[in-house]
Write a structure and sequence with these properties.
Layout (H helix, E strand, L loop, with lengths): L2 H26 L7 H10 L3 H31 L11 H15 L8 H20 L6 H25 L5 H8 L7 H20 L1 H7 L3 H6 L4 H23 L5 H13 L3 H25 L8 H22 L1
């Protein structure tokens, strides 16, 4: 077995063990600590607090980590830029904007419809970025610059709305910070099909992602229809990130930090990078959600804030490293 593959297997084994530990802690810890025996009994009997509240919350945290990490990995490959991520390229911002508008404009909104509006906003922002970036083809640098510009504009509009309607914007603010509070099996059913379909398609297109890392002349000489491939991969990234916004709001920095960590561990080969990113993302979001519940009980720190605590310093590190290189 080659060295990268051996390392890949070791990382998956160690990561799976760590994920199992984090899952047990997430299920046991909360407002009331649940003994391990009771935890198992409630899951087997499909009854009780653990099964009704903590287990779906854990599953959503895992799915969010997988989706955001895969989305970030795909976008960094398409844009050929280490700073590409769904929250920096307008995808999560678009979903957040539409959600805030709905919460403020329709106070008696249906919670069932909220994910669909959030997802529509993510798709709309992505289409706008693609149209702005398209100029006889898609150039990676132009794509990320348009993404950052659209994201900044949307965030400005969201801030304006929150300030203007401050008394009634409390729920919108919670949504924008990314929270898993009161998530249920209904939310699990919203997100897991996107994880399954888009995740499998991303793995199937890992060879194309590897090819996109080459320079444009080499890619053209290989006969790849780069614009179509990039558009399809961007659609996968939007589907993964949009489903997260739909169930949990804006979860920042996971799609930026995790692909870099995975790349350091297993290298740039997307056949190894994507599974590693998915596992590390699941671990990070589960750990962040568990820590957010335990740091200031009975107050919960939203998981989006917890991931930002980790991601913001790393983002500054990336900027400094990019500047030096």
């Amino acid at each position: 077995m080659h060295h990268p593959k051996r390392r890949f297997v070791l990382i998956l084994t160690a990561g799976s063990a760590l994920m199992l530990i984090m899952a047990v802690l997430s299920l046991r810890l909360g407002a009331v600590e649940t003994p391990f025996r009771q935890l198992v009994e409630e899951i087997v009997q499909r009854d009780g607090v653990v099964y009704a509240y903590r287990l779906p919350r854990l599953m959503i945290a895992v799915l969010i980590g997988i989706n955001m990490s895969l989305s970030g990995s795909i976008l960094q490959g398409v844009a050929r830029n280490p700073l590409a991520a769904p929250d920096l390229m307008g995808i999560t911002a678009g979903g957040g904007l539409v959600t805030v508008i709905m919460i403020l404009a329709v106070p008696q909104y249906s919670a069932v419809l909220l994910p669909f509006f959030a997802f529509a906003g993510a798709i709309g922002a992505s289409l706008l970025i693609y149209l702005l970036a398209y100029n006889k083809g898609i150039k990676p640098q132009r794509l990320i610059l348009c993404g950052v510009a659209v994201s900044s504009g949307i965030h400005a509009v969201v801030t304006l709305l929150v300030v203007k309607f401050a008394p009634s914007a409390a729920q919108a603010l919670v949504w924008l910070k990314g929270s898993l509070y009161a998530r249920s099996w209904e939310h699990v059913n919203v997100i897991w099909p996107w994880t399954l379909v888009c995740g499998l398609l991303a793995l199937l297109f890992s060879h194309q992602l590897n090819t996109l890392l080459l320079n444009e002349d080499t890619i053209r000489s290989l006969g790849m229809r780069t614009d179509r491939v990039r558009l399809f991969l961007i659609a996968l990234a939007v589907g993964l990130a949009g489903s997260v916004v739909a169930v949990a709001g804006a979860i920042g920095f996971v799609g930026l930090v995790i692909p870099h960590l995975a790349r350091l561990l297993v290298g740039p080969n997307y056949r190894l990078l994507l599974p590693t990113s998915a596992l590390l993302g699941a671990i990070l979001v589960t750990a962040a959600d568990t820590a957010g519940r335990m740091l200031m009980p009975p107050i919960e720190i939203p998981v989006g804030i917890m991931t930002s605590f980790i991601g913001a310093p790393y983002f500054l590190y990336l900027l400094l490293r990019t500047k030096k290189s």
